[in-house]
Amino acid sequence: MNLLLLEEADFVAHDRVVLSDRRLTHMQEIHRAEVGDNLRVGCIGGLMGSATVLRLQAGEAELQVRFEHAPPAKLPLTLVLAVPRPKMLRRLFQTVATLGVPRLILLNSYKVEKSFWQTPFLQPASIRENLILGLEQARDTVLPEVVIEKRFKPFVEDRLPSIAAGTLGLVGHPGPYPACPRGVSEAVTLAIGPEGGWIPYEVELLGKAGLNPVQLGDRILRVETAVTALLSRIF
Amino acid sequence: MNLLLLEEADFVAHDRVVLSDRRLTHMQEIHRAEVGDNLRVGCIGGLMGSATVLRLQAGEAELQVRFEHAPPAKLPLTLVLAVPRPKMLRRLFQTVATLGVPRLILLNSYKVEKSFWQTPFLQPASIRENLILGLEQARDTVLPEVVIEKRFKPFVEDRLPSIAAGTLGLVGHPGPYPACPRGVSEAVTLAIGPEGGWIPYEVELLGKAGLNPVQLGDRILRVETAVTALLSRIF
């Protein structure tokens, strides 16, 4: 936790918050904070700044907060991701938030197992919890938008073309395709497939929506590694 | 497991292997392999090719193997990493092997907690196990070399200069430094710090050894994400 993220409900005055949950535990056990110490804070969806510890007890801390600057810019990106297996999903939400993705669309695909859709990690409260962990890591305050699209064809045919319009549309896909571009300055719509990749029909439909395949070399990457690798290369 | 990695002890003839461990379980439960099926295989430290399942029983499988091509090229890189916390270390070995790092030096640093050195994940058998998982993911056969350096100063003063000589020397470090270069074609020596970063004295000594600080922006990345992000941008 490199930033203490504050919610509206934490405020007891316009410049004071009271904390009593995992953030208090973290302040005490990791930061070993004491009265008078300063910590970095951010307001979810808002500004960042610093806080001074006014009062620190076993079950509660009171902090005085000052907000001074905007959070870091997001990437100019819509990320479309085939739903990965549940054990990857939690870390993926964290990574996506850490890297500054503003909008994540989780999509079905032929090789996504039906059971993946049943995971509790797709519940809104769980998604939010993991996005917040990622924001705390990066020092950002703005939650990415997460959209869930359970049907591939209607999404790719009806909604993706307008999302991709005016952006550089890319599909991460192993094979004899151009190398993924570097240091792009325009907005990007990037789709990343499931383990085992998109099937040819899906690549074709993504292409009709304006997303063209690019590759990163012979090595097969885990989804989370592929997301980080593609975004670091593109932006 | 995108590649079945074979060890010398698996061979019962020059073109036949017998498997009975987690690789057999994986073949049966994930690939749902049957007699006559073909699988991608590689020989640790050697060539890659394919195998045909000759015999498949509850506790044992026999495969006929053919080796046809070389594994993918490694990156022209020596990666120097401050030892991360144990729970990150396992995945880091996997990621480093997946990304094609040929040589990893794990280094002490002021902000590395002493307890991190006690983890069983630094035992040679555990390191090898996780490197192999990373190679299986990427489809590579060549184990990265892993060197452990428990003392920062003698390593950086006495041994690092000759490692970095003739390479582009970089230290990933947040701050007012040049942006990390993109698409480098020369050999690189890259040092990545612990959570909380290198201390100024360490950055100074790394500089004297020929490694200069570069940054990736305002966002603070977990070590594993930083490794993937830096390597994807540099190469």
UniProtKB/TrEMBL annotation, chains A, B:
EC number of the protein: 2.1.1.193
Sorted UniProt keywords: Cytoplasm, Methyltransferase, rRNA processing, S-adenosyl-L-methionine, Transferase
Transmembrane segments: none
One GO MF term: rRNA (uridine-N3-)-methyltransferase activity
Enzyme class at the top of the EC tree: transferase
Domain Ribosomal RNA small subunit methyltransferase E methyltransferase: 73-234
Keyword field contains Transmembrane helix: no
Family to which this protein belongs: Belongs to the RNA methyltransferase RsmE family.
Role this protein plays: Specifically methylates the N3 position of the uracil ring of uridine 1498 (m3U1498) in 16S rRNA. Acts on the fully assembled 30S ribosomal subunit.
NCBIfam families assigned to the protein according to its UniProt record, in alphabetical order: PRK11713.5-4 (NF008700), RsmE family RNA methyltransferase (TIGR00046)
Protein name: Ribosomal RNA small subunit methyltransferase E
Organism, scientific name: Pseudomonas cremoricolorata
